[in-house]
Amino acid sequence: MPSKANLVDIFSNPPPWRKWPETQAVLDALINEGGAVRFVGGCVRDALLGLATDDIDIATDLLPGTVIQGLERAGITALPTGLDHGTITAVLNKRHFEITTLRVDVVSHGRHAEIAFTQHWERDAERRDFTFNALYLDPAGELVDPVGGLADLAVRHVRFIGNAEDRIREDRLRVLRYFRFYARFGANNPDEHAVRACAKAARQLGQLSVERVQKELFLLLDSENPGPALELMDDTGVLAAIIDGPADKGRLKSLLSLDVPSDGLLRFAALLGGDKERALHLATKLRFSNKQKDRLAVMCAGDVVADMPASTRKEALYKIGKAGFLEQTLLLWASLGPNHKLDAYLEEASCWTAPEFPVTGQDLLSRGIGEGEKLGRMLKEMESRWIASGFRRTKAELLSDFLPDA
C-alpha cells in the first residue's frame, strides 16, 4: 500500500476502470439525461491507494426513475437492485456499476434508514460512514473532498464523519465496519472517538443480522494483518460480543506469524482456540455454509498431534485428507508456537497422494457376502487392516484374511 507521500495522482494517472468504454457509456447515459455524476466511495479511495477494484459506485442527482430511463435509452441494462434506497445497477458487457441518487437519512433504525433524495452533494457526503469513503471523483478527473477524507487517507486514519456515536446509532453495523477498515487501512493510529463509540455500542450488536456480522467478520479476518484490529475489538468488548466469549489471541497471533498462508476460516478456528464444539456452535449461529462447517469440523478434530511417527501421519492423511491434515497441522503449530517446527508434516502432506483401497463391495458380493450391514462392516474392517499394514496388503491378501474359504 502506498505511503503518505505516495498517494496516486488520479488526475494525471486515472485508474484502469476509468478507461473502460463501459464506464464512459454509463456516464454519457446519465449526463444525457441532464444529471450531474461523480464516482464515490471505495473505488475512489482504492484508486488513490493504487489498489485494483471492479466495484464502481456512482452518485448522481438524477432520481432513480430518470436513471433507469437514461440507461435504457442507451441500451444499458438497468436493475432496480436497491430501488427503495435509490440504487440502480447498470450492467454493460458484464461490467456492473452501482448508481445511487444523492440522499439523506431521515429516520434511522440502527440498521436500515428511511431516506429522502436531495440535490446537495454535501448532505449526501455527511450521511456516509468514514471520511475516506466520502471522496468523489468527477468525470473530468477532479477530486471532491467535502469532509476531509483525503487527509485522513494520507495518514491511514479511519475516522467517522461527524459524531461517531451518531453514525453508529444510524447503523450499528458501522461498529464492525470500523474495525474492518482499520484492519485494512489503519496505521496503528485508532481514532479515540471511534473506539469509545464502538465500545459503548458493543452490547447492542446482538440486534444485527447474523449474515451481515458473518460477512464483516470474514472480511476482517481475511485482511492481510487482522491482528491489531482484533486486539482493539477485544479491548472494547466488541470481539467478545461477536464470538460469544473470550478470544485466543495468542494462537491467532502465532498462526499469523507462520510463513504459511491462512484464510479467514482457519483464522476463525484459531481465534476460538481450535475448540470444535464452540466453533461449530458459533458457525451455526452465524449461518456459515454447510461446506464451511464441514471444514471446521475437520480442522478442529485434533487428529494431528505433536511428535507423530511417519506411519501415524500417513494414517491421518488418509483419514482426513491433505487439506484437513494441513489445516490441523497449522492449528497445532499455532498452539505449540512458531519455534516448534512442523515442516516435516507440511512437506509430507504436500507430497501426499492417497492410495486406493484395493477391495470393493463387488469383490465381496462375488464371493457370497450379501448386501447390507455385514458387507459394510467387513469392508471397514478390511480397510482398517490395510491401513495398519501401511497400505501394503494386497486385495488377494485381504480377501484371504477375511474369506479364507471363498
From TrEMBL:
The keyword Nucleus does not apply. Its cofactor is Mg(2+). Residues 38-159 form the Poly A polymerase head domain. It comes from the Bacteria. CDD domains: NT_ClassII-CCAase. The keyword Transcription does not apply. Belongs to the tRNA nucleotidyltransferase/poly(A) polymerase family. This is CCA tRNA nucleotidyltransferase. It comes from Sneathiella sedimenti.
